[in-house]
Design a protein that fits this description.
This protein is 73% helix and 0% strand. With 126 residues, the chain is an all-alpha fold. The chain is flat.
């Protein structure tokens, strides 16, 4: 019976490891998506026709195109833009960006005043 328990535990470990890996991959893809949207919005802000109305219109478009999706309202889109602009030039932080959840990024961005402080908290949160 002990041998059976041991083999069952091994299968359970495989399941747990695969679930954790899947979560990390999904999180990584979400963070890349937020990064790309933030980059797009940052680049659009360089255009003369860009303004508050642009972000609001985009948020409305997204909600019509993807009913039920959350996090893509005006505030969420501004956060994605801020996320990109905050980390885009920082080579030390770039490898850490996909290792944290979006919630952790929002907390760190809102609570940190410098690149060094953000880097410290990102490393700590890993």
């Amino acid at each position: 019976m002990r041998e059976l328990d041991k083999s069952f535990a091994e299968v359970a470990t495989i399941i747990e490891t695969s679930r954790e890996n899947a979560y990390r991959k999904v999180n990584e893809e979400l963070i890349f998506m937020y990064w790309k949207i933030g980059k797009f919005l940052s680049e659009q802000s360089q255009n003369a026709g860009y303004g508050d109305g642009y972000i609001s219109s985009l948020a409305d478009y997204i909600h019509k195109r993807f009913p039920g999706i959350s996090g893509f309202n005006r505030r969420g889109l501004y956060r994605m833009k801020q996320f990109y602009e905050t980390y885009s030039g920082n080579e030390k932080v770039s490898p850490l960006v996909t290792q944290l959840s979006w919630t952790n990024h929002l907390i760190i961005m809102s609570g940190s005043k410098s690149d060094e402080e953000r880097e410290f908290y990102m490393t700590l949160a890993q």
